[in-house]
Amino acid sequence: MARKILVVEDNPDNMKLVTWILEDEHYEVTGVHSGEECLAQVQKDHYDAVLMDISLPGMDGKEVTRRLRAMDQFRQLPIIALTAHAIKGEDDDIRASGVTDLITKPLDEDVLLARLRHFIG
Ligand SMILES: [Mg+2]
Question: Which among 80, 90, 88, 85 is positioned nearest to 112, based on CA atoms?
């Protein structure tokens, strides 16, 4: 059965790119455009992993991650942060929110797929 990935990304071009990469590897992709939508969507379906953009309008990816981690059923959910920030302090801050791992944009397809395979096979 295909692994299901929830992609949280507000930029349509990035969403298209990530979806294309994942579907090409036979992952099943659901895309949402905000943190609020993410928190609603995880209640509706089961996901094997979340790809979380950090810069989102409204609630940012760190806050969404903190809220997911506060719920028992999402404590172990692989959450991979995607961030354009490459500043050390910012990375620490993102990791402290509870993400499983962090990938820096521009997105490297091989890096993304390797991390996903590592966490969910
Ligand atoms: Mg963004």
Answer: 80
What are the Cα distances from residue 12, in Å, to 76, 110, 116? 28, 21, 21
The neighbourhood of ligand 1, an ion, using CB within 5 A, equals 10, 53, 55
pLDDT in tens, 78-96: 999 999 866 777 888 999 9
C-alpha 53 to ligand 1 mean position (Å): 6
Taking the CA atoms of the chain, what radius of gyration do you get in angstroms?
13
Domains of the chain plus CATH, in order, are 31-48+59-107 (3.40.50.2300)
Q: What pTM does this model have?
A: 0.96
Sort residue 118 into left (φ over 0), alpha (ψ -120 to 50) or beta. Answer: alpha
> Separation of 15 CA from ligand 1 center, angstroms?
10
